[in-house]
Amino acid sequence: MSTMGEQPTPKGLRLKRVAIDTYRENVAYLHRDCALYRAEGFQALSKIEIDVDGQRTLAVLNVVDDAAIVGPEELGLSETAFARLGASEGTAVRISQAEPPVSMDAVRRKIDGDRLTREEFHAVIQDIVAGRYAKTEMAAFLVACTQNGLDRDEVLYLTQAMLKTGEHLDWHERLVADKHCIGGIPGNRTSMLVVPIVAAHGMLIPKTSSRAITSPAGTADTMEVLAEVELPPERLREIVQVHRGCLAWGGTARLAPADDVLIAVERPLGLDSQGQMIASILSKKLAAGSTHLLIDIPVGPTAKVRSMRQALALRKLFEFVADRMDLHLEVVITDGRQPIGRGIGPVLEARDVMQVLQNDPEAPQDLRQKALRLAGRVIEFDPDVRGGQGYAIARDILDSGRALAKMNDLIEAQGRQRHHFAPGELGFEVRAERDGVVVGIDNFLLARLARYAGAPMDKGAGVDLFKKLGDPVEQGEPLYRVHAQFPADEQFARRLVAQKGNGYRIGNDSEIPSAYVEF
Amino acid sequence: MSTMGEQPTPKGLRLKRVAIDTYRENVAYLHRDCALYRAEGFQALSKIEIDVDGQRTLAVLNVVDDAAIVGPEELGLSETAFARLGASEGTAVRISQAEPPVSMDAVRRKIDGDRLTREEFHAVIQDIVAGRYAKTEMAAFLVACTQNGLDRDEVLYLTQAMLKTGEHLDWHERLVADKHCIGGIPGNRTSMLVVPIVAAHGMLIPKTSSRAITSPAGTADTMEVLAEVELPPERLREIVQVHRGCLAWGGTARLAPADDVLIAVERPLGLDSQGQMIASILSKKLAAGSTHLLIDIPVGPTAKVRSMRQALALRKLFEFVADRMDLHLEVVITDGRQPIGRGIGPVLEARDVMQVLQNDPEAPQDLRQKALRLAGRVIEFDPDVRGGQGYAIARDILDSGRALAKMNDLIEAQGRQRHHFAPGELGFEVRAERDGVVVGIDNFLLARLARYAGAPMDKGAGVDLFKKLGDPVEQGEPLYRVHAQFPADEQFARRLVAQKGNGYRIGNDSEIPSAYVEF
After folding, report:
1. For burial by CB atoms within 10 Å, which of A9, A499, B291, B309 has the most?
2. Where are the domains of chain B?
3. What ipTM was reported for this prediction?
């Protein structure tokens, strides 16, 4: 009865690495004819526990019918799962039906409407980081947090749990600034202006950004039109030390491993959980070493936040958590009624940014103004700057060409992009159907249109706006041009306009919604 | 600009079937070095749309680093996705980032607390059946229905939607009976007694059952100890016509495709949505052609339903939906304070069933009594049976050996099991820690213990109870024996008892919880 260890147990399988990247979900592959376990005993999508000499990992099961992927006496593991188990190919492994992670009890209680404790949030996040949650379990957690909501203490606990489970950067400076927009406004590329301005002022602003997931361009995608953005951590540190800033891709997996995997599940679901968003933003910024953070909340009828009441509630929640995490945070509520600048899509947005930096008279003034205001507020984090002086300092830096010079320094330091990206040559113009004034531009639809046209993957794809809110238009006058690189994308974009309209509302002056601007 | 169709578009990839069964989730595999699309442009877990000459399918993306699985110019599809697309290997396909299915808007509204319409439930279920939902989207739908609950109209709509999206059986008889227990009580194998009794009475009872997913044995697993249970539909139909009944595995995918895939996501999450459960049960029974259905709701401190109030609410909900679906339904509320019979696990449960059928004086009386009462109620569906006479008829059929004869007929017809399964030879006894009376048995813990010991995969594994509620015990007297087949399972089960206790509460008579029995 105690022959274990001396001979392979009757359930031994040989471990095999299957080179499939399932994005941090552990997946196990078992051949349908697996001699020892009829695969039916488990069922596809079951969770199994894999055991190598007491080292255990959970994985979701996929059943395989091709012995080239896994043979009947092998257990295949996806790359994440294989790396996590840390055993070599050929090792004898045992598998068994897995119980769900213990912290799922807390998730189920959250689904039932309970409030969770600090310890429970920590346990959930730790299990997620350790790969013990299936994607569906993460989805359940996210929906539970969205549906009954998180109270402010719960948001704090979640933030703390997410911060605790990742690595931290330390810049060894007293003031490390950052800015972050909650998103939803196409063309809103202010970071590419705020960073050079603030860095030129001498304040440390090591900005790392994400690539677009559901939007037509992230800051990283747009910056990549001009420079390399995927830099090794050591290189990034050098650049920041020399130039006081950077505009790089975050690759946040190390700093915020829980957030990284939760976002991958949450975004495609289109969930909108304020608590989850705040925990995600603040834990990432804290892990990246920020001490001072400016949050931009755009408000408008087609923005993420649609009323001032909502924006204020969100601001309070940001403040509550930041205060308890010892982060100096300020929130600005900005005009989110329409896209910022003209271009939507990496190449077109990069063009707008460079026009502003070059003080080109053609530069979009709304982008310039917004960037100056944000940069001004960040500069006022500097204790030596008198309240209210930030804007003037920022404007001087921009007008004098020092911001452009800083941007060029950053581009050279990160590595100037060798490929020349141009706006997509295919496309079509969308024209006004009547005379009048532009009284509404649908952020959501225009973002979608730019994506349909191929952005952000095709950097030249996107939408170039000729008219903004309040502009008079005549019937037949072009409102915007869609740029695409491939005929199929162009068609796809055309179909969207045909089905959903062009996103513009033409009316008379009195119908223009009023802006909520708080800074 | 209109060269499409004449030559492959720049984004053309060749289709490849990847023999991985992802259980009805469409998964696409793209090589990381895919020349046309840098895989990073999409991100693993993104949803992509696959287009072959206008035929479109959605799939979740996995990124592959092994050209043996897919090459850089190929698009691999999991078996489900490949079959769904219906194109042959080598076909040129286009892919693009997919929008979530339109009906996800309804899911998000449900998450926000809205009530959904009949049309919205239909759209969600149709999209799920068509493979347009990722597992995470299904999890979101399920959690949303659990958390804010479904009102009774929504349960009806969901039932109708699930029924509409599958095939239907028609037995061409006026009265097709079935029984169903909502589950949660180990050892509760009454179907294997009710079916032979009712079929011997001459009533049609074509019972198909599931295999265990989270329990230590389903009726199909236990019946398989005695006979074949996986039968082709035509064979099943013949058996039912000749013998008036069957005890087979459901293979419900055709009849209730939505339920099949939702359950695969729901069960591992351990969600407990009454509305979802009712829709699942009733749509499946209606699709299987049932006209008369008896529902068994066990109530007890460790049962799924823990109070009479809850049981009554559930009964009303069953009745509401059944009445509107033109199904004759009756609900019995039964004693769920402890496991039924002695054995837990396929072999041990099959032994109990056969003892009852053989009128063995050792047969567990609780199993016999419960089966007779249920069978009696089913028999009373017969308009020729006077109300209150069902029990006596059932008892006569059992006592006379006609039920045993019918069971043997079914076993022969389905194909007698050629493999002899015996109780696992490893294992251990669990003994009373003090003198007293058994005042509590934890259904949930004992089910888990039987699973840890290897049930239902190892048919001989499980738990054999020696003591039930109210039995006096002396310190050191065995309460039950755990049977296992493999040393590792035995150890796993031992560890559970060490950690969580043995599931028995010993006290004095007055502490025994009272039973709620309504029939």
Report:
1. B291
2. 13-97, 104-149, 177-251+272-414, 426-511
3. 0.77
